[in-house]
């Protein structure tokens, strides 16, 4: 059996007091109640007034204890108390209870209920001044001022509480956003780990495999030099990425001597040399101003070049021609890499995996920068093209 809990109307719902405030008020009310019990109840002289004053005092403490838990219930319970005070003229009972409720109402209840509570006590104050003696009219303005100060203080505390609650929500949102950004960054670094290290390891593997039966010392020396250079590059990138992924990123013992090279010109020179060592005829056109672009763009260009050259080594016919061209246009940087189409080089769906994982990672990176990326056959060639928009301050 499913039971649906019924909720109170919105204007009757209230918020709990802070534990420290509830405890402090409970102690204060208890001390006052004990003091009244030990001294006895002093009231009016009429036979009818005595029992009513005692009843009013009991109602007052009931309301004061109730307001510590539910302000809305306390206001409703206060209605018979106000009637008793109007009959007996016991100003202390009505004023103290009213001041506390006027103070706590904006802190714990809705604005509608708070307004009704303030209106109730204002009407009660006017009625008491009209019904009782010369004393109540003299108390009207001081009591009204006290109620106004209590209402202002309660409203100020309520505003402070709302501000703190908004700050806590904002802090929670920022923490969640930081966690999301951290996870996104980890995913991006994982893609870079594939793009960079896999490229270098592919070069090493292909260099060794292609020259495994060679007995020419000069050729073997050239291969070892290329392997050493690729191994150092892979180790450099691996240390850098592992250091960035490490939780204790403040420890710079492994990274103090490393710097993240974002020079496209130097990377192109290195890739040109590696492709030449593998027997490919590479032609590269790179403007010198390319290194003046933001690091985000240069690293993206570098990753595209590395992935494209890796695919050339894996799939293009040995000794074939390949070309990489980078153009700086007024509003974008355009990169194209072409090579002779290999027998096993087939179109890759950049949206699906795991085939073409590196190309898909590059496509995601370019898309994040607002650019366009494509990779596939074009006639008898394999064409990789990326167009990344430039920021206004770059152009």
UniProtKB/TrEMBL annotation:
InterPro entries given in the database record: HATPase_C_sf (IPR036890), Sensor_HK_TwoCompSys (IPR050482), Sig_transdc_His_kin_sub3_dim/P (IPR011712)
Keyword Transferase: yes
Species of provenance: Raineyella fluvialis
Enzymatic reactions: ATP + protein L-histidine = ADP + protein N-phospho-L-histidine
Entry annotated with the keyword ATP-binding: yes
EC numbers on record: 2.7.13.3
Name of protein: histidine kinase
A Gene Ontology molecular function term of the record: protein dimerization activity
Domain Signal transduction histidine kinase subgroup 3 dimerisation and phosphoacceptor, first and last residues per copy: 185-248
Keywords assigned by UniProt, alphabetized: ATP-binding, Kinase, Membrane, Nucleotide-binding, Phosphoprotein, Transferase, Transmembrane, Transmembrane helix, Two-component regulatory system
Ranges that cross the membrane: 20-38, 50-68, 74-104, 111-133, 139-160
Gene3D superfamilies, per database record: 1.20.5.1930, Histidine kinase-like ATPase, C-terminal domain
Entry GO terms, CC: membrane
């Amino acid at each position: 059996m499913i039971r649906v809990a019924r909720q109170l109307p919105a204007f009757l719902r209230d918020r709990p007091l802070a534990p420290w405030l509830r405890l402090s008020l409970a102690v204060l009310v208890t001390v006052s109640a004990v003091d009244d019990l030990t001294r006895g109840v002093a009231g009016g002289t009429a036979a009818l007034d005595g029992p009513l004053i005692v009843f009013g005092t009991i109602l007052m403490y009931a309301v004061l204890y109730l307001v510590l838990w539910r302000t809305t219930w306390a206001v409703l319970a206060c209605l018979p108390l106000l009637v008793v005070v109007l009959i007996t003229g016991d100003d202390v009972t009505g004023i103290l209870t009213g001041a506390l409720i006027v103070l706590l109402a904006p802190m714990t209840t809705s604005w509608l209920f708070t307004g009704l509570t303030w209106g109730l006590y204002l009407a009660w104050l006017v009625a008491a001044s009209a019904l009782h003696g010369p004393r109540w009219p003299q108390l009207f303005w001081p009591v009204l001022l006290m109620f106004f100060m209590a209402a202002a203080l309660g409203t100020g505390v309520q505003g402070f509480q709302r501000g703190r609650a908004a700050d806590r929500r904002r802090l929670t949102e920022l923490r969640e956003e930081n966690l999301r950004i951290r996870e996104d960054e980890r995913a991006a670094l994982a893609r870079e780990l594939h793009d960079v290290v896999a490229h270098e390891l592919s070069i090493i593997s292909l260099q060794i495999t292609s020259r495994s039966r060679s007995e020419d010392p000069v050729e073997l020396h050239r291969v070892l030099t290329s392997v050493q250079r690729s191994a150092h590059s892979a180790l450099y990138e691996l240390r850098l990425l592992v250091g960035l992924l490490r939780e204790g990123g403040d420890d710079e013992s492994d990274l103090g001597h490393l710097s993240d090279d974002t020079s496209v010109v130097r990377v192109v020179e290195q890739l040109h040399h590696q492709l030449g060592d593998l027997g490919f005829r590479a032609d590269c056109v790179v403007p010198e101003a390319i290194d003046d672009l933001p690091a985000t763009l240069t690293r993206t260009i570098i990753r595209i070049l590395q992935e494209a050259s890796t695919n050339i080594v894996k799939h293009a016919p040995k000794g074939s021609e390949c070309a990489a061209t980078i153009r700086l246009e007024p509003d974008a940087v355009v990169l194209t890499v072409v090579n002779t189409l290999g027998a096993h080089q087939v179109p890759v769906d950049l949206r699906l995996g795991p085939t073409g994982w590196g190309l898909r990672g590059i496509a995601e990176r370019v898309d994040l920068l607002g650019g366009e990326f494509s990779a596939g056959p074009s006639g008898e060639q394999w064409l990789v093209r990326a167009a990344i928009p430039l920021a206004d301050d770059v152009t």
